[in-house]
TrEMBL record, chain A:
<keyword id="KW-0560">Oxidoreductase</keyword>
<feature type="transmembrane region" description="Helical">
    <location>
        <begin position="290"/>
        <end position="316"/>
    </location>
</feature>
<feature type="transmembrane region" description="Helical">
    <location>
        <begin position="235"/>
        <end position="255"/>
    </location>
</feature>
<keyword id="KW-0472">Membrane</keyword>
<comment type="function">
    <text>NDH-1 shuttles electrons from NADH, via FMN and iron-sulfur (Fe-S) centers, to quinones in the respiratory chain. The immediate electron acceptor for the enzyme in this species is believed to be ubiquinone. Couples the redox reaction to proton translocation (for every two electrons transferred, four hydrogen ions are translocated across the cytoplasmic membrane), and thus conserves the redox energy in a proton gradient. This subunit may bind ubiquinone.</text>
</comment>
<comment type="similarity">
    <text>Belongs to the complex I subunit 1 family.</text>
</comment>
<feature type="transmembrane region" description="Helical">
    <location>
        <begin position="74"/>
        <end position="97"/>
    </location>
</feature>
<keyword id="KW-1133">Transmembrane helix</keyword>
<keyword id="KW-1278">Translocase</keyword>
Automatic annotation (TrEMBL), chain B:
<dbReference type="Pfam" id="PF00499">
    <property type="entry name" value="Oxidored_q3"/>
</dbReference>
<comment type="function">
    <text>NDH-1 shuttles electrons from NADH, via FMN and iron-sulfur (Fe-S) centers, to quinones in the respiratory chain. Couples the redox reaction to proton translocation (for every two electrons transferred, four hydrogen ions are translocated across the cytoplasmic membrane), and thus conserves the redox energy in a proton gradient.</text>
</comment>
<keyword id="KW-0472">Membrane</keyword>
<feature type="transmembrane region" description="Helical">
    <location>
        <begin position="57"/>
        <end position="75"/>
    </location>
</feature>
<keyword id="KW-0520">NAD</keyword>
<dbReference type="GO" id="GO:0016491">
    <property type="term" value="F:oxidoreductase activity"/>
</dbReference>
<feature type="transmembrane region" description="Helical">
    <location>
        <begin position="134"/>
        <end position="159"/>
    </location>
</feature>
<comment type="similarity">
    <text>Belongs to the complex I subunit 6 family.</text>
</comment>
<feature type="transmembrane region" description="Helical">
    <location>
        <begin position="95"/>
        <end position="114"/>
    </location>
</feature>
Amino acid sequence: MNAGLGDAADIAGILASLIVVAAMLIWVERRLLAVWQDRLGPNRVGPLGLMQVVADMIKMFFKEDWIPPFADKAVFVLAPTIVFITMLTGFAVVPFAPGVGIIDFNFGLLYFLAMSSLSVYSVVLAGYASGNKYSLLGGLRAAAQTVSYEVFMGISIMGVVMLAGTFNLREIVEAQRGGWFIIPQFLGFIIFLIAVVAESRRTPLDLPEAEQELVAGFHTEYSGMKFGMFFVGEYLAITLSSAMIVTLFFGGWLGPWLPPLLWFCLKTAVGIMFFILLRGSLPRPRYDQLMAFGWKVLLPAALVNLLATGAVVLSLQG
Amino acid sequence: MALTLFYITSAVAIFATVMMITRLNAVHGLLYLILSLLAVGVLFFLLGAHFAAVLEVIIYAGAIMVLFVFVIMMLNQGQRTIDQEQAWLKPGTWIGPTLLALILFAEMLVIVMSGDRADTGYIVNAKQVGTVLYGPYLLAVELASMLLLAGLVGAYHLAKPILIPRGHKFRLSGQAAQLSFKLRKPGRNV
């Protein structure tokens, strides 16, 4: 690991802006979905409805924080914090711009994979600790879905690692000066995108919390700020996922004219909006379809991508 | 500084492991086990093995332990399992193993304290183990792997759903009958 980039001001700034972004996404998502569906969306509170976030937060803080008597109390309280903490710590390796970031870690990509696999516990433990059949089913689905999709997520980005020759995210960005990796790694990009949606449990792959089938799945019993943690954790996951997609496939901070940090934020914002558009436009598959698609289509495709990239890299070198 | 961090992390790892063994609720035990694995990951990191540290978190804490939690969730244990665990944790059960473990610990202390002078016989290093395993004992290694494969095929065979044709009079026969017999026999948790 190289010397730390971030002093206390860096860390505080990144943390504060992340929390603000995650909170603002509550409003952005509702407003954008409304625009795409020919509605107005929340536009009453403050200019353009921007204060809706504040109203939502006040509501959430003042709701009764209910722990069911049949729940496993310690685990029930622990579960929502895990997704929040793992997603926030995941941002430690994100290369925002040259000189802006928290650490410059040589295995940054693997660190991201580790954090995203640890965030599974949040959902699984929430499902178990609620002591409720629907929650348990949601937790089981979440465990199976995320453990499966993690496999192809890891394999799909190995093509990028081969092309860049490093796990260091900053060096991966620098390696894209000649051209973004989305062009040689288009298949890898598609697989990574699907895997990331499945990992962050967003619609259309939100089977662990499918309302029509499981009430609200793993967070059926959650209320108040504990529910808020899951909610904000999901937005943090989207932000982290778009940041990673931008870093790995869209050249990170690279871009003409504008300052690097602005490029990074713009690209990430487009990524986040794409996630929201996905939610507004695609139906949810059945659970067995999801698992079969993962193991029978995505895994072979990821392996083919890995082999082809390896062959091309070797032949170009030799 | 690094040494202090190392000892703090080791203390966390040992404490988490002890808590893991003494928890009555299996899920709480698993949570401590995950914590212990994370502490080991931090230890690797402090020793400069960054790659091993990240792999420890991805593979053990992130993948294998999720499967453990998955299985324990499906078993749906209740008060009964907790009572059973309580019975196993009685001091009487632990005296024997603890005494024997203490003897081993004392022996280890003696060996470590006496340094090279201890009469520990010929020392075999990792390289020699590798050469011998894939040299003269290759057949044994291959046979062991065949055994594991047989276990895998057997597990697949046993887990296969038993299909009963429509309209068939419900009567279990052959393998299915044996299975249901096995399931009913002990009768403790069923």
